[in-house]
Amino acid sequence: MHCMKIIFEKNLYKLYIRHKPDLKIIDLLKRTCWGTKETTYQHQDTEQNIMKVPDPLFFSLEKEDKLIGTCCFSKRSIHKNNHTIDFWYSRYFSIDPKNQGGIFGNMILKNIRTYFEKEIHTPSVFYAHVDASNTRSHKLLNHIGFEKIRSFETLTFSRLYPKKHKAAQMLLQPDKQIMLDLLQEAYKNYELAHFDLRFFDGNYFIFKIEHEIVAGIRVNKAHWIVRHLAGFSGKMIMTCLPYIPVLSRLFNPKDFRFAAFDGIYCKAGYEKEFFQLMESVCAIHKVSTGLTWMDTQSSLYNRLKTAMVGELWINSKSKFLPM
């Protein structure tokens, strides 16, 4: 049994905290459909991905040993100017479908906030990413003190038959410190962006020209099942696209496998090489589609958007590319 303790109790309800998810939490997250009324999807490989979450705290609300809902906060500490700041990322917030629409989401988040206010003494920042059309989550987070600070947009890259370019390669030890310095300089104005050498463990790729790194990207393979797309076009995509041999390589709702990109670096003027790096990584991982999420106010986003003709399709409101 995982070490846990009760941090809230009222009548038959108990809110537990633990450092590792138990089987009930894993089972709920496997069954959870994420997204909104327009788009819903399920994460696959859930258990493996949960175990990769760094320094997590899992909260779970139960009634008579039956799980009602859960939420995870993952901690990352940054040392700056002789001070330590903890950043807590909220993720995996899910209420069992039989209990949705009630008070339980508010009950969980309100008591999590109370716990942190009592137990956490280091200066801390709490943040989360929420789908723009998910009004319920917006209301819950606003109720406990969160406020919107930025918007992200989904960027999609696709190639029916991606090819690997010779200049694309996995980041190896001799170049890791160089790549770290490049990322830290590129994201120096982003307090929530933090990189160290562990960021490059086995899944970071670079594009080199004459021994210079001009582009870099981290990749994680993702696997979803898309359960619902709203509207007539969504219905057509769901029912027809899986049976069109060529197009189903790009998007198969029953088995949507793609490369999820982050840690993006692109030297100004080398956007074409960055796209070639994305194509190469897709080829290496045997997928035809890659997704990433970018700050719409960043200079990098604007550079890529300007250079995207024939390369990227960007649409934050796309039915089949949820944020």
UniProtKB/TrEMBL annotation:
This is N-acetyltransferase domain-containing protein. It holds the Pfam family Acetyltransf_4. The lineage of its organism: Bacteria, Pseudomonadati, Bacteroidota, Cytophagia, Cytophagales. Residues 18-167 form the N-acetyltransferase domain. One of its GO terms (molecular function) is acyltransferase activity, transferring groups other than amino-acyl groups.
